[in-house]
Amino acid sequence: MVLKLIMEDSVTGVILAGGKSSRIGQDKAFIEVGGVRIFDYVFKKCQDIFSEMIIVTNHPHLYGEYKAIIVTDEIPETGSLGGLYTGLLWANNYHIFCVACDMPFLRPEFIVHLTKKRNNYDAVVPRTKEGLEPLHAIYSKRCIEPIKKFLERREFKIDRLFPEVKVLYCEGKEIEQFDPSFTSFININTKRDLMKMQQMLQGNKWEEEKVKVC
Hints:
Blueprint: E1 8-16, E2 32-33, E3 36-37, H1 38-47, E4 50-56, E5 69-71, H2 79-90, E6 95-100, H3 108-116, E7 123-128, E8 131-132, E9 136-140, H4 144-152, E10 167-170, H5 172-176, H6 191-202
Parallel strand pairs: 1-4, 1-6, 4-5, 7-10
Antiparallel strand pairs: 2-3, 6-9, 7-8, 7-9
Helix pairs in contact: 2-4
């Protein structure tokens, strides 16, 4: 199942690039694989879909080359939930697609599919047998106030938000139509994850040409 990719003007792409990467020992976004930074894979995929891009980062000076709105956390030290909150505040569109900066195997057709399911929902979230994927999901500005309440209480787990808003879950069978191996959700948490990702990006399992950021 393939959807034609058309530039999406009514959804903003938001990349969260504010993590400390403490378990890796270096900034995950700028690890190079095959001469290309992992962040560049993510940015190029999103840039091809969304006319408005936002990068949420604690190091804005590192992202000056990208055609995007570069912002820092509105409420510092609040993790991914704080990054999501910041992205929603800055977006000019009512809905955003929020993704982590270390997920280079994004499937554009699947992302477009999620955007098309957003009407009448505050969030569209993939759910696999491994659990929810809140950092590869659609959110609306209706989520801002509930998120703010959690941040004020210093509760930072994104999935705590979902009982407070209207959520559509995209289940495994539906995901398989676009991503049979569920590689969209592979990210880096440990050095072992990084080694696996390097093998995939350098091998035949990933068919994309090297990206060029512009």
